[in-house]
């Protein structure tokens, strides 16, 4: 049983974003039959999760206000899916790099200062998707221009990630614009704290 595990309701139901209610209903019936736990006895837990995603996608797309919001924010949803397909967890424990115990010596050996911090910054750049643009940490023999380039890049560094998975509130469920603004404000606080 192969299913889409992201958040995009159109992809969950395997339909185009411009689909009308009739097409949404038809797609829902098809996917509900496909992923119903009774039809997938070999893995009922996984089928139940997929079935729940199908039901949720259907409910969201049948609500005209939510459908409009989802259509307007489709790119963001797909971007979140791409991020979630990667490992959301930060690739390393930054705390371990705040002490000299994490490296041995200042030469260019595998566990030296330069090797350890080069790998740490490489992982951060890879996690953020800027691996091509990020200069390497360098070696004990790096020239001043390389060192300056490295520090300039990281001093100005701002992550591309939205940290939307840290949101506390689903703003689509807000009763009115005042509540939505308050929700957005709280969500933004959580995102900034995570960054």
From TrEMBL:
For this UniProt entry, what's an example GO CC term?
Answer: cytoplasm
Under InterPro entries, the record lists: Chaperone_stress_response (IPR051964), DnaJ_domain (IPR001623), J_dom_sf (IPR036869), ZUO1-like_ZHD (IPR054076)
Domain of life, per lineage? Eukaryota
Task: Output the SUPFAM superfamilies linked to this UniProt entry.
Answer: Chaperone J-domain
Protein known as: Putative DnaJ subfamily C member 21
Q: Which Gene3D superfamilies match?
A: DnaJ domain
Pfam families named among the record's database cross-references: DnaJ (PF00226), ZUO1-like_ZHD (PF21884)
Its source organism is Streblomastix strix
Tell me the PROSITE patterns matching this sequence: DNAJ_2
| CDD domains, alphabetized | DnaJ
Where does the J domain lie?
Answer: 8-78
């Amino acid at each position: 049983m192969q299913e889409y595990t992201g958040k995009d309701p159109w992809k969950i139901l395997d339909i185009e974003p411009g689909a009308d209610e009739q097409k949404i209903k038809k797609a829902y019936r098809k996917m509900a039959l496909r992923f119903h736990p009774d039809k997938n006895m070999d893995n009922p837990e996984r089928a139940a999760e997929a079935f729940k995603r199908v039901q949720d996608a259907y409910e969201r797309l049948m609500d005209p206000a939510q459908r409009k919001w989802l259509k307007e924010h489709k790119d963001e949803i797909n971007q979140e899916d791409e991020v979630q397909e990667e490992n959301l967890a930060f690739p390393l424990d930054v705390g371990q790099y705040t002490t000299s115990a994490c490296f041995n010596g200042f030469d260019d050996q595998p566990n030296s200062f330069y090797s350890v911090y080069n790998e740490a910054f490489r992982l951060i750049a890879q996690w953020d998707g800027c691996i091509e643009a990020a200069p390497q940490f360098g070696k004990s023999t790096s020239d001043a221009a390389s060192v300056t380039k490295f520090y300039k890049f990281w001093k100005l560094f701002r992550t591309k990630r939205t940290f939307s998975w840290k949101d506390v509130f689903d703003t689509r469920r807000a009763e009115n614009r005042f509540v939505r603004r308050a929700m957005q404000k709280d969500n933004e606080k959580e995102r900034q704290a995570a960054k």
